[in-house]
Amino acid sequence: MSFVRSAPRLICLMIIALGVALVHATSAFAQSDPLPSWNDTASKVAIVSFVEKVTGQGSPDFVPETERIAVFDNDGTLWVEHPMYVQLAFALDRVKTLAPQHPEWKETQPFKAVLDGDMKSLAASGEKGLVELIMTTHAGMTSSDFQKIVTDWLASARDPKFKRPYTELVYQPMVELLAYFRTNGFKTFIVSGGGIEFMRPWAEKVYGVPPEQVIGSSIKTEFRMQDDTPTLYRLPEVNFIDDKAGKPVGINQQIGRRPIAAFGNSDGDLEMLQWTTMAGAPARLGVLIHHTDAEREYAYDRDTEFGRLDKALDAAAITGWTVVDMKADWKQVFKD
């Protein structure tokens, strides 16, 4: 008799439990795609397949978490790099800000070209001219002062095309990818030709990558006591250029492990992808972001001053690297 009396209550509990299970199942299904801003194309399949292979227990390609290192270029791979590198835009603005203190710049290149808005003459100054700009505008201050200048500039500067802060012009599909890799036990690093102290103030907030996992170009610094306060003072001398062949060197110096996945978008990333993928087992992944979307962003590859993709694009066909077609593979470019 007690079971009969309890039956309706048991049935109700079973129905409630079933309903809760269905809700959880539906929610899990809705959230099952870790890369919702990616179209279901071969590029997405290749990336997901790689992650499943190296993280699956019992997989012949299984890689322990301690060895799951993924490296990402920044300019053109994680955020916009046209019409010029963001750090170059910062340097140009710094020249204009500092110009009243340097009247001689009105007649001295490459500063004259910047003040006159003469980008042709600036480009003609070549790497030497650009290095001089960087050294002049990024040095002569403490590291903490420079960090504040960068942070303040990024808060007010706007991209000329999209009229949005540069930190909003990060690629949503790549932000998802960073999170997806970390969820699967990867340690993610930024490896960029850009300045390490230019990226560190905001990389964690924007990408979820902490400062100690940012590798970049640097200028020399020295320890100084200023008003009884210990500081690091930035000198107008190049310390390390983290570009092209410098990227594998920087990875080795800072990480001490060879990555198993590398993401780039230009010839500046060629050696990083070679270093990552041309090393035999375990399974390795090389990915190039190909800018093909003139409507939502930009379309460029072999014929551009910023982010030229020429030799690396040819190498991809030989090495089997995944080439992400921005127009075809991404549902959206920036976060709405």
Question: Can you describe what's shown?
Answer:
The protein is α/β, with parallel strands linked by helices and 336 residues long. It has a domain at 35-84 and 164-217 and 240-329: HAD superfamily/HAD-like (Rossmann fold). 44% of the residues lie in helices and 17% in strands. It has 13 helices and nine strands. The protein has helices at residues 2-30, 42-55, 86-98, 111-116, 119-124, 126-138, 143-156, 172-183, 196-207, 246-254, 270-277, 311-319, 326-329; strands at residues 69-72, 141-142, 187-195, 214-226, 229-240, 261-264, 285-292, 299-300, 322-325. Strands 1, 2, 3, 4, 5, 6, 7, 8 and 9 form a nine-stranded mixed sheet that branches. Strand 3, helix 9 (196-207) and strand 4 (214-226) form a beta-alpha-beta unit. Residues 10-30 have low confidence and may be disordered.
What is the compact description of this entry?
The chain is an alpha/beta fold and about 325 residues long. It has a domain at about 35-85 and about 165-215 and about 240-330: Rossmann fold, CATH 3.40.50.1000. Helices cover about 45% and strands about 15% of the residues.
Features:
alpha/beta, 336 residues, single chain
Approximate helicity band: 40-55%
For the largest beta-sheet, the strand count, sense and barrel status come to: 9 strands, mixed
Give the name of the CATH architecture of the domain at 35-84 and 164-217 and 240-329. 3-Layer(aba) Sandwich
Kindly report the average pLDDT value. Answer: 91
What order do the helices and strands follow?
A: HHEHHHHEHHEHEEHEHEEHEH
Signal peptide: 1-30
InterPro entries: HAD-like_SerB, HAD-like_sf, HAD_sf
Organism: Rhizobium johnstonii (strain DSM 114642 / LMG 32736 / 3841) (Rhizobium leguminosarum bv. viciae)
GO molecular function, one term: metal ion binding
